Structure prediction request, 238 residues.
Amino acid sequence: MRTVAVVLAAGSGSRFGGSRPKQLEKLGGRSILEHSVVAFDRSPSIDEVLAVVPGYLVAETADDLISYRKVSGVIAGGAARTDSTKAAIGAIAATGITECKVLFHDAARPLVSQDAIARCAAALDSQQAAAVVVPSSDTIVEVTDGMLRRVLPRSELARAQTPQGFLFSVISRAYELATADPGFAQLAATDDCGVVLRYLPDVQIQAVPGSDRNIKITYPADLAVAEVLLSAEQQQAL
Ligand code: C5P
Prediction:
């Protein structure tokens, strides 16, 4: 089955600061977005890559990514992450495809491994959905109004990363139901598995083991950590 990778890069990067979105920051000579695109472009599990960026960056990004063989399009995202996912679902549907595997990836995770991509795509041979997760070494607590309310059972907790993969029919149905729900925007969903779990609770989502290296660059300090991880990897490859 055809596998499409959607690289979500339409965030404004407000927590990172700066005048341009963080995904355009350089990491080892390439933009953060380009690292993410390269990872999927070179994966044997992926047939096609679709990048989702802020509207005003579509033309510039398309020029930057033109040399990558599997990049089939650069489209405009929306105000919230879920709006960007919806834009990608619309673009895939517009090609006339009715079923395929779709892997959604945060462009802000430029160090995603080939293993994580391959495992996520392979899980969709037998499951309708799959997500890369890592166990939480910290104890996770619920905090409201500055007070700890609950200590959650650590052995049952994991941190969700990306890629998150779905059969196209599943993710498009979940978003169809979400769009019809007037309360959806208030949920402020931070990932696509959350949307599937809410609107299609019978869908099983396989947990695919990830790695702590697959960090999400959110603050400037994360970029410094990513530089160190990347150069350590480049040293090992020599
Ligand atoms: O905001 P957050 O860190 O959760 O964003 C995760 C990824 O989703 C980032 O790569 C960001 O660019 C992308 N995103 C998007 N459209 C938005 C908001 C976030 O594509 N409106």
In short: The mean pLDDT is 95. DSSP finds eight helices and eleven strands in the chain.
